[in-house]
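Severity: low
Component: inverse-folding endpoint
Summary: output formatting inconsistent between runs
Steps to reproduce: submit the following structure tokens with default settings.
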């Protein structure tokens, strides 16, 4: 299996071009193997770049534990870079089909290389049952999450997020509480957890515990959820710089169309071959 490793703000995945080769027969199993950072390639999961009848390409994303997720904000930027630079669709505006629907992307190109991508992440999903969560509210805003002594705000960007604001982001929060919140019974499909420190109304620092992958260096949909949660709880503005361990993302929750726009980098690291047997 030919693969390309790519990363967006440190959120790294193994990408497989299914335009020019057959997709793996067991993508969930392959994802678990190649994602292992000691015995595999190393990454946060596996992303298949597939043909689409509705868009320029289709993205299928598998977490490091093999579970399939609906969407990955950093991953879709890398898909766009691959699609453009490898000649699948050589145009500065792309449409990519995802589990969340078809998303539009604008590419910043320099010297025939994609440097940055702006993604229209769509309208945030705020109805609790569609996040999904059993916590009260539409959406739940700063509600207590027992027994963790935290207040959380829940948003979906096509995948579920639980945002909590803290004075300082510590390993005790991210590494100890993150995995417990991921599987909390209030989240029937598990949840991604964002720990947020507000620096200014237009600037935050975030660490993310991702559903199915553990702590990652960045999470695009998580950054979007943080932008939405900040506005809804009155902590931050609609334009927001989000600092993650792997890099920075720029967010804009537009008042004009209610869509969240995310801008960030996409980097190709290396390519190789993985023996499927």
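Observed output (run 2 of 3):
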């Amino acid at each position: 299996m030919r693969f390309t490793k790519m990363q967006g703000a440190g959120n790294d995945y193994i990408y497989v071009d299914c335009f020019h080769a057959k997709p793996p027969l067991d993508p969930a199993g392959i994802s678990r193997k190649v994602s292992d950072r000691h015995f595999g390639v190393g990454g946060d999961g596996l992303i298949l770049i597939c043909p689409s009848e509705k868009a320029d390409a289709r993205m299928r994303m598998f977490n490091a534990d093999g579970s399939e997720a609906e969407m990955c904000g950093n991953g879709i930027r890398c898909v766009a870079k691959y699609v453009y630079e490898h000649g699948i669709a050589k145009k500065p505006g792309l449409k990519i089909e995802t589990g969340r629907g078809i998303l539009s992307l604008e590419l910043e190109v320099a010297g025939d290389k994609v440097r940055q991508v702006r993604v229209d992440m769509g309208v945030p999903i705020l109805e609790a049952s569609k996040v999904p969560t059993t916590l009260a509210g539409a959406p739940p805003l700063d509600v207590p999450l027992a027994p963790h002594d935290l207040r959380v705000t829940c948003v979906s960007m096509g995948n579920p997020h639980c945002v909590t604001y803290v004075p300082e982001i510590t390993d005790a929060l991210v590494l100890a509480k993150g995995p417990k919140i991921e599987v909390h019974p209030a989240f029937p499909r598990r949840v991604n957890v964002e720990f947020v420190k507000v620096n200014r109304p237009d600037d935050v620092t975030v660490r993310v515990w991702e559903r199915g992958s553990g702590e990652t260096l960045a999470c695009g949909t998580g950054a979007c959820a943080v932008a939405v949660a900040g506005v809804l709880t009155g902590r931050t503005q609609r334009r927001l710089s989000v600092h993650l361990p792997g890099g920075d993302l720029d967010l804009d929750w537009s008042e004009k169309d209610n869509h969240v726009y995310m801008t960030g980098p996409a980097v190709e690291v290396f390519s190789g071959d993985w023996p499927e047997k």
